[in-house]
Design a protein that fits this description.
- It is a single chain.
- The chain starts with 10 loop residues before the first helix and ends with a helix.
- Helices cover 68% and strands 0% of the residues.
- The chain contains 15 helices and no strands.
- Helix 3 packs antiparallel against helix 14.
Length: 378
């Protein structure tokens, strides 16, 4: 579904892709095994679940979503296919909005979500979180926001089950139904807005959704399953080297200009202008193979996976909030996915801000909960 450059499907090239992909996968698996071995002795004290008041947290969180979404609609700062405007907003507000829609909104909402979950108001909390996700996905033209949000909701129930009350089958069914409906609404809204946008600037790329809405929903799991196609394009590209890898690390995304991977490696036929800013991400294994070195792919994958796991565990240790920790893990994953579409500076800034804020508010919230528990026991 994504362009594959000069890849010719010869036996040699197919084997080449399989070997590089396996090395990248091995690097991530080894990082997981090593991390689990090193951290299996770490123990975390559990916070006693209280009957928390969450109303004002949710009001503040949803109000922030509404305000930021309104600003984004007015200034069109973070929207797929639109080049970001050059604004002189006070206090670097443009960067704040970019961070917010890059996962910041989800991080902030994990505080009331965890409190609601502990207070057994989890079905309502899932609905509010999905509702916020629909708003965000609509304003940024993104089909994937609710998919990542679903992982933040569901993964802790498995990975951090010792920390959380076990939901009943009835509640879990309600979670899945709410998430499914939210994904359907967000996909339809995002695709409708994309279609309307392209009708005005690039009619040949506009899509009639009336006959294909369910098709877009059904193919969502594979529509952005990036990595393999990009690796096909990169293995067939002749200009790989360590110097080339570091050049791509420092590449800047410029409105009116297609990024190097999309234009020169994947050979996407798009023609970027000041109105449409399109790119296709290569994924982290293909990005690492810009170096042309298979061992480098393994080491790079190992380091990224170790960074992801360590960041998530750090937030868990500080906050004792499994959902907040998972939000950081997913947030870093999103930044890793988009390596190769405009250098490394912006992903580092977004993730560093997310990790700092999550660690700070998580630690502060843990102190508040600990104090409440102490007062309740006394």
């Amino acid at each position: 579904m994504e362009p594959i450059g000069t890849f010719d499907f010869s036996v040699q090239q197919v084997d080449h892709v399989a070997v590089v992909a396996s090395i990248g996968a091995l690097g991530t698996l080894l990082a997981g095994i090593l991390f689990n071995k090193l951290s299996e002795k770490l123990q975390y004290s559990h916070l006693k679940a209280q009957s928390f008041e969450t109303r004002y947290y949710w009001i503040a969180g949803l109000l922030a979503v509404a305000i930021m979404s309104t600003l984004n609609e007015v200034y069109q700062i973070v929207q797929a296919f639109r080049p970001p405007p050059v604004l002189n907003l006070p206090f670097r507000l443009q960067g704040l909005i970019t961070w917010y829609f890059g996962g910041g909104w989800s991080i902030l909402l994990m505080i009331p979500f965890y409190r609601s979950f502990c207070a057994q108001k989890d079905v309502k909390a899932v609905f509010l979180l999905v509702f916020a996700g629909v708003i965000v996905s609509t304003t940024v033209f993104s089909r994937g926001v609710l998919v990542f949000q679903a992982l933040i909701i569901l993964l802790p129930l498995l990975v951090y089950r010792d920390f959380l009350p076990k939901p009943s089958v009835n509640k879990l069914t309600k979670y899945l139904l709410i998430i499914f409906l939210g994904v359907c609404v967000s996909v339809i809204a995002a695709m409708e807005r994309r279609s309307n946008f392209f009708e005005s600037v690039a009619p040949e790329r506009a899509t009639n959704l009336s006959s294909s809405t369910w098709f877009y929903i059904a193919k969502l799991p594979i529509d952005r399953w990036i990595g393999l196609e990009a690796l096909m394009a990169v293995t067939a590209y002749e200009g790989k080297s360590l110097d080339f890898f570091f050049e791509r690390l420092s590449e800047k995304r410029v409105p009116g200009q297609v990024d190097f991977y999309t234009h020169k490696i994947a050979l996407n036929p798009t023609t970027d202008t000041n109105t449409v800013n399109y790119s296709t991400p290569p994924g982290f294994i293909a990005f690492a193979y810009f170096s042309g070195s298979k061992p480098f792919v393994g080491v790079f994958s190992f380091v990224l996976a170790l960074l992801l796991l360590s960041s998530e565990r750090l937030v868990l240790w500080l906050s004792r909030n499994p959902f907040l920790a998972t939000a950081i893990g997913i947030g870093l994953t999103v930044q890793i996915i988009h390596l190769g579409t405009g250098g490394i500076a912006n992903p580092i800034k977004i993730f560093a801000a997310s990790l700092t804020i999550a660690a700070g508010i998580g630690w502060l919230h843990r102190k508040i909960l600990s104090r409440q528990s102490s007062l309740s026991d006394s």
